[in-house]
Write a structure and sequence with these properties.
mainly alpha; globular
């Protein structure tokens, strides 16, 4: 048995957590509330919570794609909070 958590993980680390928990078939709910508290997303397809769940991304690597334009415009030190 193992438990999973990734409290306030932004996009990329959230994808890594989902990949790990999916690979090892986590049987219990994980505390993954990043999408609840972090408004900004650097992904081309931001995570969507559906029915209280996040799907494990598929595809190469972490299964996500970073939007390079968003990354260039992302304010340094903002931590994803709106308003800087």
């Amino acid at each position: 048995m193992f438990l999973g958590s990734g409290l306030c993980d932004p996009d990329v680390s959230l994808a890594a957590s989902l990949a790990l928990f999916g690979a090892y078939d986590l049987q219990y709910p994980a505390a993954l509330n990043g999408p609840q508290f972090i408004e900004a997303s650097l992904l081309t397809a931001p995570f969507k919570v559906l029915g209280g769940e996040l799907a494990v991304p598929t595809g190469p690597g972490l299964g996500i794609a970073v939007d390079e334009a968003k990354l260039r415009d992302f304010p340094a030190g903002s931590g994803g909070r709106s308003g800087g």
